[in-house]
Structure prediction request, 230 residues.
Amino acid sequence: MQVFRKNKAQLSSAASERLQKLLGSRTAPLGGAESEQMLVTPPPQAIRPILKIVIAVVLLTAGLVWLNRPTPVSVPEVASPGIQISTNSNSPVPVQGIDQIVVDVKGDVLTPGLVTLPAGARVADAIAAAGGISPNANVTSLNLAERLSDGQMVIIGNSQSQPASSDPRINLNLATESELDSLPGVGPVMAGRIIAWRETNHKFHSIEELQEVPGIGPKVFANLKSLVRI
Prediction:
């Protein structure tokens, strides 16, 4: 009986040791998991610098976006000055620009007086600026396509568009191509050159400038100077 009890005690002791070993082997992984969890979670001392860097990057990005934002551009409105036209003979002389001429329109028009026109305007433009012709006006002999020059007087009616003057000499600044062609030694080609020079330089300022027209030498000018004027 003692032997049996001794063996039974040894078996119990052995079973207890085996059970403790089994329990110890099962609890070991739990400690490993806790250690892994502690390794994954960073300490607060490491989180603060990272947060500061993230906040600085966000603020810098927001500042760059604000600086590069599109800004509206306001375009000032430019009003066209237009051409001032005066239709009253009692009104002051209109302001004349570089590319404008002032013409005195008289005769059978609705509002005679000074009108300002673009350079290169024609008689028809002057009539329109003066309000149009009168109902009983006779313009059959009037050259509506004649080009005007600065300071010219346009008479609408029985007289053609020409300055009111008894001087028989031809005005270089007002003469048509046919009038220049009637001068001695001046043909259609030379008349066209005179008009082209006048339009390029706006007008003749002296009779001597006629010699600057190609083809007009001293001999031709000597024959023309007593027949022309400005």
Confidence is low (pLDDT under 50) at residues 32-37, 78-89, 159-164. Residues 1-41 form one domain. The two ends are 164 Å apart (CA to CA).
